[in-house]
Amino acid sequence: MKKYVPILARTQLFRGVEACQVEAMLHCLDARLCTYQKGEYILRQGDTLDDIVIMVEGSAHIQKDDYWGSRSILGHLEAGDMFGEAYAAPESGPLLNDVVATDNCAAIFFDVRRVITTCSSACVFHALVVQNMFFAICEKNKALVQKLGHMSQRSTKEKLLSYLSEEAKRQGSAAFEIPFNRQQLADFLSVDRSAMSNELCKLRDAGIIRFARNRFELL
Amino acid sequence: MKKYVPILARTQLFRGVEACQVEAMLHCLDARLCTYQKGEYILRQGDTLDDIVIMVEGSAHIQKDDYWGSRSILGHLEAGDMFGEAYAAPESGPLLNDVVATDNCAAIFFDVRRVITTCSSACVFHALVVQNMFFAICEKNKALVQKLGHMSQRSTKEKLLSYLSEEAKRQGSAAFEIPFNRQQLADFLSVDRSAMSNELCKLRDAGIIRFARNRFELL
DNA sequence: ATTCCTTTGTTGTAAAAACAACAGATTTAT
DNA sequence: ATAAATCTGTTGTTTTTACAACAAAGGAAT
Q1: What is the number of CB-based contacts under 8 A between chain A and chain B?
Q2: Is residue B43 part of a domain?
């Protein structure tokens, strides 16, 4: 666990907390390290969650499969990202999605009650962590609204452009990589893969985008 | 403003705070009452917001219009509902949506910094309000994920059933009212109104639902 | 290097949704 | 009460998407 302290110290949750302080807080927050093989389920729809999870290695998808086997991908997590904040409230009910490892990966679980309840004395930085968590949820909220913005586009082409241009903006460059292959991107945008692939090529032929594999560029 | 104190006391933000205490906190939170005519903009996309807004009368839609005039409705607010929590974080950027009065309505604005910063002495309940706000954002987060669940359905019929069954569950009854007319429901689900109307009638003819105006029943 | 498996692009067909136009019902305004 | 405006359902047409099947390209494993 110790080796992940530098990564934790750079996360949103521990912003402003020195690495040595993070290490000191681990016990106080009941931190537990878990590792997963690619494809393994980290969390399952319907589970109840009393922890906040921070990915410290590898990556994962937040997704849901319906009865007919069609999948929808809600989001993507990589090292440094947090999951489960929204279930911090008591009686927040079971998870609405699965979290599945897309690589071999490692995650640290923190007891949510210990995170949001400032402890008696030791952790001087605890109040800061509570505030960071608060702001993290605000940001996730905005990210969800943006995803809804993509999903509310009426055509596949518009969905693609909406997503790709936001991603370019987010990554601060017209050339960027996305954490999805074609099928995953289709599941993320809730469209058909082949139709989407078709639209991507039309956009390329129209000189609007360039791409190779999961690397895209807006022109 | 005083007349809305009982309503405020029943909101999520002031849960656990007595009405008389709420009244005492109004000044401390820099509460301001604003009223709007039906159709008026309460907030505009691109605005920066340093307040948390609680609707105390009437109702409003959170929505966005694109350049081609097509509208997408993100959500609905009525008396007691809160808006703007997600912009509580500093540097959270401009609003992504408009908020538009769908009735004559009244809203109270609270200075967000005063809400999330517990003040020196007077307000013994302030810490409770901070926690309530935290949980409110968690809940909104879950609501957004559920909306994404509806939007990620591939067909209009599935979107309708996903939304209607969640609404039935949320309202705790197979018979319930929705805060949208047909055009608004279509804008909420990002589908075409006439096609949706058609699907609704097919569902009715198949004996799956009943409806009249904005009153629905699942069979 | 060869084989196997995965990913991506391409095409044709079937199904669904968007669009447009309109009639009847209901509500609102005068 | 009447007229005007809005809302809802219905239909036919056009456009788009989903689906299915397959070939080509790229990577991984042996």
Answers
A1: 98
A2: yes
Q: Is B100 helix (H, G, I), strand (E, B) or coil?
A: strand
Q: What is the pLDDT of residue A125?
A: 79
* Three-class SS of chain A: CHHHHHHHHCCCCCCCCCHHHHHHHHHHCCCEEEEECCCCEEECCCCCCCEEEEEEECEEEEEEECCCCCEEEEEEEECCCEECHHHCCCCCCCCCCEEEECCCEEEEEEEHHHHHCCCCCCCCCHHHHHHHHHHHHHHHHHHHHHHHHHHCCCCHHHHHHHHHHHHHHHHCCCEEECCCCHHHHHHHHCCCHHHHHHHHHHHHHCCCEEEECCEEEEC
Judge whether A102 lies within some domain: yes
- DSSP 3-state assignment of B53? strand
Q: What is the pLDDT of residues B115-167, one digit of tens each?
A: 888 766 556 678 889 889 999 999 999 999 999 999 999 999 999 999 999 99
pLDDT of amino acid A123: 64
- Final residue of a domain: which of B142, B168, B195? B142
Q: Does A191 lie in the same domain as A126?
A: no
B157 and B82, same domain (yes or no): no
Q: How confident is the model at residue A122 (pLDDT cuts 50, 70, 90)?
A: low
A32 or A88: which leads in pLDDT: A32
Domain that holds residue B71: 2-142
Domain count within chain A: 2
Chain A residues bordering chain B (beta-carbon distance below 8 Å): 64, 70, 72, 74, 85-90, 92-93, 96-97, 116, 134-135, 137-142, 144-149, 151-154, 190
Same domain, B30 and B115: yes
Statement to judge: residues B12 and B52 lie in one domain: yes
